[in-house]
Structures are given as C-alpha cells and as structure tokens.
Amino acid sequence: MASRINLFRGWPNPSLLPVKDLATASATALSTPSIYNDGLQYGPDEGYHPLRQHVAEWLTSFYQPQDPISEDRICITGGASQNLAGILQVFTDPAFTRTIWMVTPTYYLACRIFDDAGFAGRLRGIPEDEEGVDLDFLQRELAKLETEAVEAVAEESFLRQYKPWRPWRKLYKFIIYATPTFANPSMKIMSLRRREGLVRLARRYDALIITDDVYDFLQWSSAPDAALAHPDRASVVRLVDVDRYLDDGPAHEWGNTVSNGSFSKVIGPGLRTGWTESTAKFAYGLSQLGSSRSGGAPSQISATFVDQMISSSALRNHIMNVLQPAYCARYHSVLSAIREDLLPLGFSLPPNSHEVAGGYFIWLRLPQPLQASDLARRAMEEENLQIAAGPLFVVQGDPIRMCENFEEYVRLSFAWEDPKNLTEGVRRLANAVRRAIRQD
Ligand SMILES: Cc1ncc(COP(=O)(O)O)c(C=O)c1O
Q1: Does the CA dihedral 21-23-26-32 come out positive or negative?
Q2: pLDDT tens-digit profile of 204-239?
Q3: How much is the CA Rg of the chain, to the nearest whole Å?
Q4: C-alpha 440 – ligand 1 centre gap (Å)
Q5: Could you write out the DSSP letters of every residue in 276-287?
Q6: How far is the CA of 198 from the centre of ligand 1 (A)?
Q7: Distance (Å, rounded) from C-alpha 48 to C-alpha 161?
Q8: Could you tell me the domains of the chain?
Q9: What is the pLDDT of residues 342-399, one digit of tens each?
Q10: Is there a contact between 222 and 356 (Cβ–Cβ < 8 Å)?
Q11: Phi and psi (nearest 5°) for 365?
C-alpha cells in the first residue's frame, strides 16, 4: 500500500519551524547573564517582563488598536491550551458558572479542558452561519437560563461556591468560547457586527468571551493571483479590542473578553508559550493563578527565546517571508486540487466573501448521502489517507444538540504534509469517494 498521507494533523510541517532563528535566540539568551539569570530562575507571576513589553508592541503594530497596548494588559502563558485551563481556574466556579457556550463546529480538544474544570455535561454549542456566531440563538438560550436561575434561587437550590472570594477573582456566570478568525475547523471569520453583538450579550449576561486568536497572523489573499495590501496588519478587529472601545469601553474593570494567543503556530508548538491580552485588572487576576504564584508564569526560559525572536525582528520576518507565503501556496494548491478532483463529485467549499484567508484547514461539504465517519474510515482503509470527520467537532455532551452532527463535513489540514502529498491526498480522497458512491 502507498505510504500514509495525513491531512488530519494540525501541526506545522517541520520545514516551517524557524530552527536557525531559535538557535540564535537561545544562544544569545543562554550566553547573556542578564537574560539567563532571569530565564533560568522562578519568574514574575505575570511572565517575563521584557517579553510582555515586546508582545504589547508587536500586537499594537499588528492589530492597530486606537491606543497602544500597554504591557499591564499582557500575561505570558504556557500557550492557548494551558491558559484556557488557567482562565477557568481563576474566573469560573462550577457552582456559580452555569454554562460553557462553544461556537460550533468547535476546536474539539477544548472540550476536555472544560470537563476538567468541572463543567462536564454543561457544554453547549452555538451554531454558526456565514457571519459566524448565531446571536439570536445565544440570546434566546441565555434568557431561558436566566429565568431558570431565578427559579433555582427561589428554591434555594444553589450549590455553595467552591472557590473563596479573592480581590483578584471575578467569577463569570457564563463562558463563551470561540475562534473568531480562521476558525478551526470551519475557516470562518466572524463579522464585525457579530463581534459587537457578542460583546453586548456578554456584558448583559455576565459572560466571559475567551477567544483563541491563534491563527490571526497566518493570513494571505483568498485570490491566488493577488496579494494582501497589508499582510502585516490584522484584517479584522479582535473581540478584546471590540470590548475595549465599544459603547464607551468595558462594562467594568475586568472586561468581558480575553484574547488567548499562542506562539505554537508562528514559531513551534513545542515551545508551549503564549500570551493573553485583557484588561489590566483581568491580567493581574490571571497572574494570581495558584500555580503562577508558586514559581511564576509558565515557560519562563522559552519566554526569553521568544523575546529574542521578537526584539531582533526574526519572528516578524519568519511570519512575513516564510509562513505566509508557504501557507498561502499550500492553501491555494489544495484548493485547486479540490476544484479539480472533488467539486466534480459533488463536494462544496464554504462560501468565502473575504479578501483574506488563513489558518490551517479546509472545511469541505460532502455530496449526499455520503457520511463523513464512513468516508474517513474508507479513506484510511483503502487509501492510507487520514482526514478528520465532521462529528469530531461537535460539542461533547451537549444534550440540546441544536447544532448539526457535521456528518456532512470533513476537515483537511494543509499545514502538516509535504506540498506534493497535499494534492496526492486530495486525489486519494476522490478515489475513496468514487468507490463509496459506486457501492451505495
Ligand atoms: C483553536 C485552537 N486553539 C488552541 C490550539 C492549541 O494551542 P496551543 O498549542 O497554544 O496550546 C489550537 C491548535 O490546534 C487550535 O486550533
């Protein structure tokens, strides 16, 4: 059998890792006493100070908010996954926080993190349409829950909170989890008016919006023969910036949004290093997480390497000169293979009215009556091709199941395989589909 092609894996191809830049950055950090003496010690709760400063400048230049981002809005983290757990530890209590709302299809690995924080059985999906999150659905469900909560108080059936009151802790009643730009897996970009509506809902219902803004820098033109006018500037306003300015600014000093950023996609996942941006009050609260109080923010030595990469412009150059062109070429070559081999079989691509595309994935709709789970199994058995079937991205344990089960979709990653295997993978998928159609 031909060798395995993996279009499931959401990892960067090894050729896209900036090994030389990291070698230079780490050599500088480890040969400079003023850097390694801090880097190899316990560090500050908020994270390595020079990196907070440089991340604030770097984000200011990319997102161009109305005012510069100050370092007191930034915490250094162990990446988006570690930090999602950290946010939940400080800002939720399973006896107070009622529901976790996840824009669906969702990044499936987040479900376990919510389960671990005590929310198993309380994860709910919010459907997406072309503009992103379905606000009418969310508003209806939040209003229903509020009525139920009033009744529960009347019956004195509230549990006692597990977590003690602390001046740095605010417990939120709801969590809303989303990847608003280049979503994994749907590739969608939430529109600005939905972003604004979501922030207004969050303020009204005491919800914290956690956004995984992990793909924002991986952007390029959605037209193969055009270039973005400003590849070094974000094309959409982050939710954390919406909350910073909308209707005269945050509802209170904690705010209702936190941006969860990561160096996994722009340097390498093995660094396990990221950042958050939020109000300064929220950032301080996050830094008071018990495990950060005991020894400082995670990834202290990695933070010194990343800091070297930012301050020397190596990171900017890697994103602009290596990652954006490489992912752009991969994306367009997979799309043209899909147009050639899969669209004639009845597949369809999500409509994209944006000038910009980005991220790691393509979300494809199958011709009916094909089922994604069956097709993924066939692709593996018959073609040695690994793909992700849509049902993987449902919200686990959601009893409402207002969202679809996504049996009509598959996700293809264009980040991991070598370019020639990307088009070969699409060809193998077409073979599996032809066989499946013949046998149905
Ligand atoms: C939406 C989303 N969030 C988080 C992660 C993981 O981020 P990190 O490596 O920083 O934990 C990924 C990686 O695939 C992702 O797609």
Answers
A1: negative
A2: 999 999 999 999 999 999 999 999 999 999 999 999
A3: 22
A4: 37
A5: EE--HHHHHHHH
A6: 22
A7: 33
A8: 5-16+316-439 (3.90.1150.10), 20-315 (3.40.640.10)
A9: 999 999 998 878 999 999 999 999 999 999 999 999 999 999 999 999 999 999 988 7
A10: yes
A11: -95, 135
Token pair 């072309």 in the structure block, residue = 130
Evaluate whether 100 touches 123 at the Cβ level (below 8 Å).
yes
Nearest CA to ligand 1 atom 16: 184
Tokens 């954390």 found at: 240
CA 76 from centre of chain: 16
Q: In the chain, pLDDT over 90 holds for what percent of residues?
A: 90
Could you tell me the distance, in angstroms and rounded to a whole number, from the CA of residue 170 to the centre of ligand 1? 25
Tokens coding 137: 């659905």
DSSP helix/strand/coil, 313? coil
Alpha-carbon span 65 to 79, nearest angstrom: 23
Q: Output b/e per residue, 407-436; b: 16+ Cβ within 10 A.
A: bbbbbbbbbbbeeebbbbbbbbbbebbeeb
What is the C-alpha end-to-end distance of the chain, expressed in Å?
24
**Residues β-bridged to residue 76:** 275
| Pocket test residue of 111, 181, 262, 360 for ligand 1, highest count of atoms within 8 A of CB | 262
What is the Cα–Cα distance from 271 to 62, expressed in whole angstroms? 22
User: Which residue shows structure tokens 């050639």?
Assistant: 340
**Quick check: helix, strand or coil at residue 140?**
helix
Residue type, 80: A
Q: Which two tokens stand for residue 180?
A: 């608003």
- Alpha carbon distance 421, 417 (integer Å): 6
* Ligand 1 pocket, residue 334 CB under 6 Å: no
Q: Residue 212: CB within 6 Å of ligand 1?
A: yes
pLDDT at 155: 47
Unique residue bearing structure tokens 């309380």? 122
The residue behind tokens 């990561």 is 262
Q: Does residue 323's CB lie within 6 angstroms of at least one atom of ligand 1? A: no
Give the length of the chain: 440
Q: Which residue shows structure tokens 């390029």?
A: 220
pLDDT at position 152: 58
Q: Is the beta carbon of 264 within 6 A of some atom in ligand 1?
A: yes
**CB 296 less than 6 A from any atom of ligand 1:** no
Q: Round to whole Å and give the CA distance between 305 and 219.
A: 24
pLDDT of residue 110 exceeding 80: yes
Find the mean pLDDT for residues 410-436. Answer: 97
pLDDT in tens, 43-66: 999 999 999 999 999 999 999 999
Enter the tokens of residue 243.
Answer: 């909350």
Q: Among 221, 360, 299, 333, which Cα is nearest to 52's?
A: 299
